[in-house]
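ARCHIVE CARD
Drawer: 12
Card no.: 0347
Subject: one protein chain, sequence and derived structure
Cross-reference: see card 0346
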Amino acid sequence: IGELAGIAVGATILLNVLVAG
């Protein structure tokens, strides 16, 4: 997994946390 892919995954997880919260 590349750095950009890692950032994309992290952003997706963060967004999910914000929505769930």
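Annotation on reverse: The two ends are 28 Å apart (CA to CA). The mean pLDDT is 95.
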